[in-house]
Amino acid sequence: MDNDRVSDETPICSAKGCRTAAVWVLAWNNPKLHTPERRKTWLACEEHREHLSQFLGLRDFLKEVVALDEWERRPAADGRGSAADG
Predict the structure, then answer these.
(1) What pTM did the predictor assign?
(2) Domains of the chain: total
């Protein structure tokens, strides 16, 4: 699939105004709101991965960055949100 083309089923980047297919999952947690094991997620295309990672990292929210296909292969665990859980 061409990353610039998306369908209704294609996960898209969480960056404002971006409609590009996501290839990364940025797992994060706001310690003031969430338990330590809880993971919220943003999706990122290649272009916005660094920007979104820096935004979360500056706030000490970013926990890990994982390729979307790898994230989807992981077994669901308590506290882990879905790939579009923003």
Answers:
(1) 0.79
(2) 1
